[in-house]
Design a protein that fits this description.
- The chain has 4 domains: 264 residues, Rossmann fold; 198 residues, Rossmann fold (3-Layer(aba) Sandwich); 100 residues, no CATH class; 232 residues, paralog of FGE (formylglycine-generating enzyme), CATH 3.90.1580.10.
- Helix content is 36%, strand content 14%.
- Helix 5 crosses helix 6, helix 18 crosses helix 19 and helix 19 packs across helix 21.
- The longest helix has 20 residues.
- The chain is elongated, with a radius of gyration of 34 Å.
- The termini are far apart.
- About 6% of the residues have low confidence.
């Protein structure tokens, strides 16, 4: 009995060869393929009236002849017409089976969606159909009567991030209900990132011809697409083996929605490789490259990676970084382009650190992808991802376990052959368990020639004593980079309006004066900068203040992730708040509102979203896992079971809050995860949450994955006090950071609470670990250090550095190997000059007041363009840390300026004066505190802190006369004593001695070992050198 199943089917067939964008968009072949597919539908028994054909052709006469022959109507493949045809399937012509064939231009957008361009696409408005969204719509209850759907897509899937690409159909207006139980089969011409066009010599454009040859020819019978797929796969395997194509088609098959998780299956066709470690490695690299491309294309433009991503090989990280060695040399440098630095130096072992949202993961992905590309060409280095997440990873606590988990293709016999070619990439190292961290570091120590690149939010509390390694700390975007990103995303006029709001009123005043002075916009933010006419003194000082201490909103925008969030908020018409928690609040709200406006899901409220996702966020942090398998009931947090609706995660995926791969769900960014976790924690703080579950009382200063989440908690309370009362004593540094990140909330009482806790512990500092003392100092710096001699006081009506003096009586000192020198009585500052104190000199225009500078200093200042110290980022820039990044002449000018302000004779101490003040008493000249070295008495390299610390926190290292930090923290500049009858200076740790332009420094620093801390150690630097570990203290001559 003959049954024509095609009588109850309909088809939408599209073939686009010409576009409004112009001749460069023209294709050859899609229209012909669409006509051939239509011929097959007619032959199989589908009425012509059931076929909606949209086609145009570079050969219009052939299209006209076909239309006359078949009698099938042909319409222009424009966006609105195709959209209307899709609606007609629902409203006017319901059917049992729907065929959709599409041939034409396609790309994969920054969100990983396949966009199919309609003929009216042009550079200003890129009209398109969002295939991923269309597939979801077709599976929804809106198309419930269309129980079977067959989609054939013969289009490219190259990654191309078009800035002008608007949301494509059908997101805006195609109705969608809940996911139904439809059978949907989608065949795509190629995998993500590849070409499918009919290009000569490219070996692509084969899908339509192969498919049409394999489709059944029995009229009336619907095809078994699974069987057709097997035949198509076999033909492509033959073509690939013969070297006639590089194309790899894929199909997506869905057999309905199971009530909680989408059950899509992806099958990629590849040619079976010979079973060998090398072949396994090649397949591993291919899979890794596809995964990295998919992740990177949506992140790269707003993560500090440049304005476009058309060529991954040419893309570079524009985020600046400071690079320092973990070896004894402790070398340090600033680099403007991290990727360029890595490629130029061929660094093999690197620790990438940076604050949340700085782009660490993006950097590692970019480096790994570049190596994937190189490996596929020449088979050289093999990139390998190491993760501590997932069930298999929970077992690795030794170096051997890590290797076996990370490199599944390493057979025992091939381990020595392939291991030296591997480059291990370990992202989110700080969220691994301590045994896993130890396994990675043990592997690096045990294989000193192995290439390992890892990322971490913090380097504190971890023993980084691994050979041949450098640390790269990502620095915030420069303001010009922020403006360029805004212009790229929002357009020039809107970007300028947003940037003015971020930079504040001072920026508008300075910008107008800068333009009037003839300066270029880019130069406004440069230190130094040259303009035809100098700005008036008050405006120059205002500009310097803007550069040194930008407004809070601009500071936040310098973090790539937060900048991206600000762009999303602005596109939704919202204005920007000044705190990080508020930005995350508006980001999540904007994403959810856009989902409601464009897609639906109005039955899921924002409150339900938080109650459903927050328990997952908490458990991910607690278990140090990246994702959860929702198919495993054991992984479902108990708190979430009551509120997780079947469609919750699908809605969260569409909103851009989480990603879902099969049954595995993960947050799109760790900062978003932290924000959701904070919403759950806030409900239990301070009464129902034991603080010891989140802070180790024996090592409270060691950072944990909870710290970033706790910073968002005050946003949900609307007050700082509950969190500070709960956390302040257990983790004062984390509490201080919460106060700083929630600047919009009243917090003076909270700040005073932290000050009281820190002062009490510093008064009992004996026996405390160096890392604990450093954390206490950072906490005090974030809430306001009010210790005498550390900050700023008042002289008459002006603000001035508040120096606390120590009296040094007259005495004799032996300098180097010279005869004893009699040192007259003087006063010397108890602490090195701090950032807060030096800032007053800057704000007062000290760099422009020649009367405070020596003639030699003026010449060097003008030659090098000095107008502010070098900037090294946190924690170097905390107000109570010693000023660094200045030369001898800048330090001397500060002394002269302060002396004029106070009416006193101030200068730098000579070596003899410094040694007299730094001695330990009783004639002992070993260390400032005595004859025996102790790591807990000074911030030297043995302390393991590796940055400056707040002045005075190492109280047990105080000298006999009451000076702090004479040993360690920073080297201290001294005045020359060329007439002291002593021999030439020892160059020591700094290079070769030069008699004229080298000056002494004393005391050692955080970057050098115990021998440098001795009071007799002689070291010099050039008079124009500016180092990250060199500061100074002030001397006052007696009347």
């Amino acid at each position: 009995m003959y049954v024509n199943d095609f009588l109850h089917a309909r088809a939408l067939v599209v073939g686009v060869e010409t576009y409004s964008a112009g001749e460069e968009w023209e294709l050859v072949g899609p229209a012909a393929d669409a006509l051939r597919f239509t011929d097959w539908l007619l032959y199989m028994g589908m009425p012509a009236a059931h076929i909606s054909l949209f086609a145009n052709s570079t050969a219009p006469s052939a299209l006209a002849e076909w239309r006359q022959r078949t009698g099938v109507s042909v319409a222009e493949p424009a966006c609105d017409a195709i959209h209307t045809a899709l609606l007609d399937v629902v409203r006017k012509h319901p059917c049992d089976v729907l065929f959709l064939f599409w041939g034409g231009h396609g790309i994969t957008d920054p969100e990983g969606r396949l966009r199919l361009f309609t003929c009216d696409a042009h550079e200003e408005v890129l009209h398109n159909v969002d295939l991923d969204d269309l597939m979801l719509a077709l599976r929804s209850s809106t198309f419930a009567e269309v129980g079977r759907q067959i989609l054939i897509v013969d289009a490219c899937r190259r990654f191309v991030p078009h800035r002008e690409l608007r949301r494509g159909l059908p997101t805006v207006s195609l109705p969608r209900g809940e996911l139904g139980r439809t059978d949907q089969f989608t065949l795509c011409a190629t995998r993500e990132g590849d070409l499918a066009a009919n290009l000569t010599g490219a070996g692509t454009g084969r899908l339509s011809s192969v498919l049409l040859a394999k489709l059944p020819t029995t009229p009336g019978r619907l095809p078994d697409m699974e069987a057709v797929a097997r035949q198509v796969r076999g033909e492509f395997e033959r073509l690939r083996t013969a070297g006639e194509t590089t194309q790899i088609p894929v199909f997506y098959s869905s057999r309905g929605y199971d009530g909680s998780v989408r059950s899509d299956q992806l099958v990629a066709w590849t040619t079976p490789a010979e079973a060998s470690p090398v072949a396994d490695a090649q397949q591993y690299v291919q899979r890794l490259a596809r995964r990295l491309e998919s992740r990177l294309v949506g992140e790269v433009r707003l993560s500090g990676m440049g304005p476009s991503f058309d060529s991954l090989e040419r893309s570079s990280v524009v985020t600046r970084a400071q690079v320092r060695s973990t070896s004894i040399s402790a070398e340090h440098s600033l680099v403007p382009d991290v990727v360029d630095y890595v490629r130029r130096t061929a660094v093999r072992r690197m620790i990438v650190s940076g604050a949340p949202g700085m782009g660490k993961s993006v950097l590692l992905d970019l480096l790994a992808l570049a190596q994937c590309r190189a490996c596929q060409v020449d088979g050289s280095a093999i990139p390998v991802q190491v993760t501590g997440h997932g069930d298999a990873a929970r077992e690795f606590v030794r170096a051997e376990d890590m290797l076996r988990h990370a490199v599944p293709f390493l057979h025992h016999a091939a381990q020595d052959e392939l291991l030296h070619r591997c480059v291990f990439y370990c992202d989110a190292f700080d969220e691994m368990t301590p045994p896993q961290q130890s396994a990675v570091l043990d592997f690096m120590r045990g294989h000193p020639n192995a290439s390992v690149i890892l990322s971490t939010r913090t380097t504190r509390g971890i023993d980084w004593s691994v050979p041949n390694c450098v640390e790269v700390e990502l620095l915030p975007l420069d303001p010009p980079e922020v403006l360029r990103h805004l212009e790229c995303e929002l357009g020039t006029s809107v970007a300028e309006e947003v940037f003015r709001r971020l930079a504040g009123r001072d920026y508008e005043v300075i910008q107008d004066a800068w333009r009037a002075a003839g300066g270029a916009r880019e130069q406004l933010w440069s230190l130094p900068a040259t303009v035809p006419r100098e700005l008036p003194g008050d405006l120059a000082a205002l500009r310097l203040k803007l550069l040194r201490d930008p407004p809070a909103a601009l500071q936040l925008a310098r973090t790539p992730f937060l900048l991206r969030a600000m762009v999303t908020i602005r596109r939704e018409g919202e204005y920007l708040d000044l705190s990080k928690p508020d930005i995350l609040h508006h980001l999540v709200t904007a994403l959810w509102s856009r989902l409601h406006a464009e897609v639906g899901y109005r039955d899921i409220s924002l409150d339900q979203l938080f109650r459903g996702l927050a328990p997952f966020a908490v458990q991910l942090i607690r278990d140090r896992q990246e994702s959860y398998d929702l198919a495993s009931s054991a992984d479902l947090p108990a708190e979430a079971e009551r509120v997780v609706a079947p469609r919750l995660f699908e809605a969260a995926v569409l909103a851009g809050i989480v990603d879902q791969d099969g049954s595995h769900v993960t947050f799109r960014h760790r900062v978003i995860r932290d924000y959701f976790a904070a919403s759950a924690l806030s409900a239990r703080i301070p009464d129902r949450l034991p603080v010891d579950d989140y802070v180790d009382p024996t090592q409270w200063w060691v950072e944990t994955p909870w710290r970033a989440a706790l910073g968002f908690v005050p946003r949900f309370h609307g007050s700082l006090e509950p969190l500070v009362d709960w956390l302040g004593r257990a983790q004062p540094e984390a509490a201080a950071q919460c106060i700083r990140e929630n600047a919009g909330l009243p917090g003076e009482s909270a700040r005073q609470t932290i000050r009281d806790v820190v002062r009490q512990r510093l008064a009992e500092s004996t026996g405390r670990a160096p890392a604990e003392l450093a954390a206490l100092g950072r906490a005090l710096g974030m809430v306001g250090d009010d210790r005498p001699g550390v900050g700023v006081g008042h002289v008459l009506t002006s603000s001035a550095p508040a120096i606390e003096w120590a009296f040094i009586p007259e005495q004799q000192v032996v300098v180097s190997e010279s005869r004893p020198v009699t040192v007259p009585a003087v006063h010397i500052a108890k602490y090195p000059v701090t950032n807060a104190q030096y800032e007053v000199f800057l704000r007062d225009g000290g760099y422009g007041k020649d009367r405070h500078w020596t003639r030699r200093g003026i010449a060097l200042r003008d030659r090098h363009g000095w107008c502010a110290p070098e900037a090294y980022g946190p924690p170097f820039d905390l107000p109570n840390h010693p000023i660094v990044g200045i030369s001898y002449h800048e330090a001397l000018a500060f002394c002269h300026w302060l002396g004029a302000l106070r009416g006193e004779r101030l200068t730098l101490p000579t070596v003899a004066q410094w040694m007299a003040a730094a001695r330990s008493g009783d004639g002992v000249e070993g260390y400032p505190w005595g004859d025996d070295f102790s790591p807990g008495r000074s911030n030297s390299r043995q302390a393991g802190i590796r940055t400056t610390t707040a002045v005075g926190v190492f109280a047990s290292g105080m000298s006999h006369f009451g000076l702090f930090d004479c040993g360690g923290n920073v080297w201290e500049l001294c005045a020359p004593e060329r007439d002291a009858g002593r021999g030439p200076w020892l160059r020591g740790l700094r290079g070769q001695q030069t008699p004229d332009d080298y000056l002494p420094i004393k005391g050692g620093s955080f970057a050098h070992y115990w021998c440098s801390v001795k009071t007799r150690t002689d070291v010099t630097i050039r008079e124009a050198d500016r180092e990250w570990d060199v500061g100074f203290r002030v001397l006052k001559r007696l009347p």
